[in-house]
Amino acid sequence: MTLSTSIAGLEIDDSIQLEQQGSILTVWLNRPESRNAMSLKMVTAIQQVFSQIADDVSIRAVIFRGQGGHFCAGGDIKDMAGLRVEVANSGSLQAYVDFNRRFGAMIEQVDQAAQIVVAVLEGAVLGGGFGLACVSDIAISRDTAQFGLPETGLGILPAQIAPFVVKRIGLTQARRLALLGLRFDGKTALDLGVVHQVASNETELEQQLEQTIQQIKRAAPLASRATKALLHRTLNEPLDQLLDDAAQQFADAVAGAEGQEGTMAFIQKRNPSWFD
């Protein structure tokens, strides 16, 4: 496994590490001493990566993982403590507002990314880590992972996470989890719809991830991007308008290079050219 802190010439903070294998980019959260608590530097580094690859069709999936046996234990309390001085000196709460909103912008950027986003969840999946899991397209968890929204127990709100948790599991369950600050394991996360698969050991976890990667490679890159964008639009646009536009996209896809190659590959009983 070769890890780096650069991609396409972009140097990033070492709070994350990158591993690229062909069309698959793995983003390792790299603060194991704090269970990968999400600092402002980590938030910025993730944003830089997703901005850099936004139009890069050669990268078809981004996998989030955590170093040291944990995914992410939430926001970095040390960052919050550091802001107290700035707030005290300025007499304004704007530093807190900007800090919190920056995290929401990162979560939204990951949510809207054209690439397929996979979260591999182990150990602590709390607060901001929980929010990041909720914007993944595919979430694979160890049965022993510990999920939760502990914010209210700290006297704060899951302010930027809440909308994405509600989208993931619905308002009824989100209320219970957020208001009670409940902790639960991977099996319960599966029942709630937070994750899609649960592994009982490390070997099974890696097998499930590899199977997911192979399925991603079977999907045509442009069709995959267009499908993800279409699914996002279903939550916000009038149905007639959406279906009219989807019909045009379908026609374009059928007549396009991917549609023709996919059809021929099916007829000839072979893998399509994009399956690498």
UniProtKB/TrEMBL annotation:
Source organism superkingdom: Bacteria
Q: Name one GO biological process term.
A: isoprenoid catabolic process
Q: Which InterPro entries match?
A: ClpP/crotonase-like_dom_sf, Enoyl-CoA_hydra/iso, Enoyl-CoA_hydra_C, Enoyl-CoA_Hydratase/Isomerase
Q: What is the residue range of the signal peptide feature?
A: none
Which residue ranges does UniProt annotate as crossing the membrane?
Answer: none
- Give this protein's Gene Ontology molecular function annotations: catalytic activity
Family to which the UniProt record says this protein belongs: Belongs to the enoyl-CoA hydratase/isomerase family.
The record, for PANTHER family, names:
ENOYL-COA HYDRATASE, POLYKETIDE BIOSYNTHESIS ENOYL-COA HYDRATASE PKSH-RELATED
Q: What is this protein called?
A: Enoyl-CoA hydratase
Species of origin: Acinetobacter courvalinii
